[in-house]
Every structure is written in structure tokens, then in C-alpha cells.
Design brief:
- The protein is an all-alpha fold and about 110 residues long.
- It has two domains: about 1-65, no CATH class; about 70-110, no CATH class.
- About 80% of the residues lie in helices and about 0% in strands.
- The chain contains five helices and no strands.
- The mean pLDDT is about 80.
């Protein structure tokens, strides 16, 4: 259940940041573009569309991994792999034993591990 709240927190944060970005783009556009280039003013939904268009054209669509924390997990996995490769057989056995015990307690008996 904790993972669900964590995921929803990331989604909520991403939506807030997109909203703030849209508002910032709308205000900057409306303050600068009509006077400089004679273009019309835009609303928040049009600003969101411009952000999406710019993301597709210049940034690709691969940024979701940063919003969802996937890049962090992949980095952690790489560090874990390196640590595993430098362990002795006894250290690996102890690590697996501890991980299984920790994983089992975490899912079945909250607040009783460590």
C-alpha cells in the first residue's frame, strides 16, 4: 500500500509541476510575444499544448522515467550489482538471508523488521 501512495505522490507532483509550467509559459508568452512579435495571447490549455509540443520536438518522450523515479531505481540496481560482484560467497549468502528476512517481514508484518 505504501508503494501506491508513493506512486500517486509522484503522479500528483508531476501534475502540479506541469500546471505550474503551463501557467509560467502562459504568463511569459502573454507578457512578451504579443508586444514583440504581434502574436495573440494564449490561455493555460494552449500553454500546456505548447509545452507538450516542445517536449515532443526537442526533448523526446523519455522524461517519464525521471518523474516516476525509474532512473533512480536503475542507478541503485547498478550499484547493487557492483556491490554483489565484490562480495565473497559468505557475504552473498548473508546478504540473501537478510534480504529475504527483511522482504518477508516488510510484506507480512509491518513495523516488526529491523
Amino acid at each position: 500500500m505504501n508503494k501506491t501512495y508513493h506512486f500517486l505522490g509522484h503522479i500528483g507532483f508531476a501534475l502540479v509541476m506541469i500546471g505550474i509550467g503551463s501557467l509560467a509559459l502562459m504568463y511569459l508568452w502573454n507578457a512578451l510575444m504579443p508586444d514583440i512579435f504581434g502574436l495573440g495571447k494564449i490561455d493555460c490549455l494552449q500553454a500546456l499544448g505548447l509545452l507538450l509540443l516542445a517536449r515532443i520536438m526537442f526533448g523526446g518522450m523519455g522524461g517519464a522515467h525521471r518523474w516516476l523515479g525509474i532512473g533512480h531505481r536503475m542507478h541503485h540496481r547498478g550499484r547493487l550489482r557492483e556491490k554483489w560482484m565484490n562480495m565473497t560467497d559468505d557475504e552473498r549468502k548473508e546478504f540473501v538471508k537478510h534480504h529475504i528476512r527483511h522482504h518477508h517481514c516488510h510484506h507480512h508484518e509491518p513495523d516488526k523488521h529491523d
